[in-house]
Amino acid sequence: MEQIKTSDVLYEEFFRKDGDKKITHYCPGCGHGTIQKMIAQAIEDLGIQDRVVFLSPVGCSVFSYYYFDTGNIQCSHGRAPAVGTAFKRVHEDSIVISYQGDGDLAGIGTAEIIHAANRGENMSVFFINNATYGMTGGQMAPTTLLEEKTLTSPFGRDRKRDGAPIKMAEMIATLDEPVLVSRVAVSSTKEMLKTKKMIYKALKNQVDNLGFSFVEILSACPTSWHVSPVEARVHIDETLSTVFPLGTFVDKADTVLPYGPSLFPFLSGEDFLVAIVEGGELAECEQAPLKDELAIMVAGFGGQGVLSGGVSLANAAIAHQLQVSWLPSYGPEMRGGKASVTVVMSPDEVSSPLAEDIDCLIALNSPSLTAYEHMVKPSGTILVNSSLIDHEPERDDVTVHHVPASDLAKEAGLPQATALVMISAYIHYSQVLTIDSLIESLHLGLKKKSLIGKNRELILKTVEILVSK
Amino acid sequence: MHKRLMKGNDAAVYGALMGGCTHFFGYPITPASEIAQTASYYFRKTGRTYLQGESEVSVINMLYGASSGGARVMTASSGPGIALMAEGLSYLAGARLPAVVIDMQRAGPGLGNIWPEQGDYAMVVKGGGQGNYKNIVLAPASAQEMFDFTKQAFTLAERYRMTVFILGDAYLGQVMESVEISGELEQSERKDWALYGDKESRRNLITSIYMSPSDMEAHNELLQRQYAKVEREIVDYSETDTDDASLIFITYGIVSRICHGAVKRLRELGLKVGMLRLKTLFPFPKERLKELARKKITFVAVELSNGQMAEDVRLSVDGLTKVLSFNRMGGEVMKSQDLVAFATEYLKG
Amino acid sequence: MSNQVIVDADRCKGCGICPSVCPKGCLRIGTEINLQGYEHVEVVPGSVCIACGMCVLACPEPRALTIVKHTEEEKSCTSA
Predict the structure, then answer these.
(1) Where do the structural domains in chain A lie, given as residue ranges?
(2) Which of A87, B8, B13, C79: CA 20 to 30 A from B165?
(3) Looking at the predicted structure, is the pLDDT value of residue A373 above 90?
(4) A8 reaches C (C-beta below 8 A)
């Protein structure tokens, strides 16, 4: 003796608080119950009950967790594919079922379903298309048929104003990644048997790690359609399926390769630290003899190495056990080719990285000198790139040094090290940091490590020239 | 321990990694894009997950999904993106899922611009989405704190089963400072409420729907008790020269750095000015502010918004003292000398 | 002994789908009203169930219908 019965994957009694514990919350003759029983049976047949996580977004199926004795996540309207994508990335062995209605999947959630499909997420999506917003009482859905009257299309769906019923399966079938895209119906005996098979196949694909399976199921909503349950199922065959043709649009289950393991193993312990801390060690030098904050602005144009020079300066300061901040000019200011950075160094916490007045301006071109010299504190310093600037600063209360930085950099074949030449000069004149620390910090600021040697030579040459002056 | 010169945005990624975050879901937006960029490299390289969503709406729901699975999850964005996440943040709160979200604020409203502002205060500190919920909000003021606070955020998020926000701004993301990558690499423990796709967790349910009003009210009350606990346990702030002050700047984030410079200068001028810097915006240090207010110290709420934090300061002191506002908006940032002038005039005038 | 369709009357909403799919006319909506207030489905007396399972498949309500299927062996045993 054997029994043909509802799968035990559905609870015996439903834990709805205020409702009946033996019947579903669906209206009589609703397609959801039939489909959910089919899904439960497929879960049982595949032996995956413990692995299943059932996603029920907003819509009539929001209470699916009353019924499915599986993991359950209730999701916001339209977003189940995003939720499932992420869950699957956490638990690759789980079986994610995204069960969505037409308002949900074909309306508010079009972006999420299209992109989950396009990423080929290894999940099974069941799209219940009943051409109406059932839960909110029967408003027009993206899949509502033309001329059909609903609560929000009281004169019938007007093609010119409301558009035409959207065909999700066909849309998804245009993407490269899905493994299975099919449209079936819960209508006649024949179609129901096909539906049952397709549900099984969509889940089997996931079990086999094949990727994204999408099954659109035409389903009855006798309440919103204002017909009897039996008439509703006939209506699917006679009308709905003429607008939404049944059939399988994509089936690559026999040809795709299953998902493999990630290219990168999960690192922990020392391996993890080594992986995240790249680029070599910071230099360590004596504490710099600095009592107060010192702000240095390097300003010029793109290609002079302003930002990376600033990084080397800041790293040299860290090597001398100072606190630093490095703040570049930002956003639209940079679009015009201008580049500037302010480095603040301090024996203790830097108060503000937004220096309002600066101790030293390193002007790499004429506009920078003009624009920023007013910011230099009285008795501060201005370093002028004499290769490009042919006029003197207007300030007479500051110390001015001239360095032919562009010429030196060009001679060395490193025009992108113009700022570095000036910074070497700054260190030479100010005596706050050491040239050694600057050299020892080069590897942290330079993207091209092969140029470290040439940069070092340039720094040393700059100092040699300044000493001989 | 490793020390590195790095951007605040990058420091957040290191903080996340050390805080045991395994899943980063990103969507680019200036001025937070470097967080996603750096995460896309280091998360994948270390066998963790970086995934770029199709929108911020999708991203916040990815956090919801991964957090349902018990993972430590995060994203980073800026005001326009955070606004799009509002519904998802509310769902996270309703379902009591831990998550970490960084908001590197830019100027608004609308498209605004990409310069720093603190105009997201109300949206982030008050919740942002539908319903009676709160986020824990941490306000770093340096690249080091971008690391420290982000690392710590994951522990807090799990302890209270809440979203923890890191509320930064455009400058904080762009500034490079030396950052110590310190502490132990944290790991997430198995949670009794999460789903793992196995028998043991099968009957766990992640939801925010409670059809009966009495259940829904009970759930709300549970959340409020949790928020009260957060208020008792983790409120954090720092004070500078408040002992004898007759005027105090109340401030947070990058602005506190500017205030710090101003206080230093004002003390040199012999003026009794101090500052209180909020490290947590929710919970808000109501009690301490009230205590200071009883001493009749004038407060100046200094912020890059139209006075959103000042409202909370006023609520806290409940009329006990005068609360002035010093605001800049639109990406303009006050200078410490502006604050020096303001305080000098107030105290001498 | 023939196959049996067992109706759990209190789980039935009387939608009428199962009678419409039964190839042997074994089911009909009766006149009795169940706990939920639905006129529920009942087995037509004297009908012969072939245990095709279509009613269980089509029915939207979990566990409203169960078919107890007897194998050929069992059938022959009881009839012998």
Answers:
(1) 31-251, 279-468
(2) A87
(3) yes
(4) no
Neighbours of B322 (CB within 10 A): 15
Residues A146 and A140: their CA atoms lie apart, in Å, by: 10
Report which residue type is found at A296: I
CA distance B241 to B209: 49
Query: What is the number of other CB atoms lying within 10 angstroms of the CB of residue A92?
Result: 12
The domain C4-79 having CATH identifier 3.30.70.20: the answer here is yes
List the single residue in B17, B51, B197 with the smallest CB-CB distance to A71: B197
User: To probe the interface with B, which of A83, A267, A357 has the most B CB atoms within 10 Å?
Assistant: A83
Please answer yes or no on whether A33 and C61 come within 8 Å at the CB atom.
Answer: yes
What domains lie within chain B, and their CATH numbers?
2-233 (3.40.50.970), 238-348 (3.40.50.920)
**Cα A423 to Cα A318, A363, A368, A384, A459, distances in angstroms:** 15, 11, 16, 11, 9
* Closest chain B residue to the Cα of A313, Cα to Cα: B5
Per-residue pLDDT reduced to its tens digit, A384-437: 999 999 999 999 999 999 999 999 999 999 999 999 999 999 999 999 999 999
Chains that touch B (3 or more CB pairs under 8 A): A
Does B185 sit within 8 Å of A272, measured CB to CB? yes
Name the pairing type of β-strands C4-7 and C65-69.
antiparallel
Tokens 């502006």, located at residue: B338
Whether the predicted pLDDT of C80 surpasses 50: no
Q: Which CATH class is domain A279-468?
A: alpha beta
Q: What's residue A19's pLDDT?
A: 67
Asked whether A206 and A123 are in contact (CB, 8 A), the reply is: yes
pLDDT tens digit string along A202-251? Answer: 999 999 999 999 999 999 999 999 999 999 999 999 999 999 999 999 99
Taking residue B296's Cβ as centre, other Cβ atoms within 10 Å add up to 10
Q: Where are the domains of chain C?
A: 4-79
> Which pair of structure tokens corresponds to residue A399?
């110390």
Strands A338-346 and A323-328, bridge-based pairing: antiparallel
- C71, C21 contact by CB (below 8 A): no
| A415 cis-preceded (ω within 30 degrees of 0) | no
Least trusted range by pLDDT, from A1-5, A157-161, B53-57, C75-79: C75-79
Given a cut of 50, is residue C79 above it in pLDDT?
no
pLDDT-based confidence at residue A338 (cuts at 50, 70, 90): confident
Chain position carrying tokens 């963790």: B48
Top mean pLDDT of A275-284, A445-454, B249-258 is at B249-258
CATH code, A31-251:
3.40.50.970
Interface of A with C in 55-94 (CB under 8 A): 67
Kindly report the length of chain C. 80
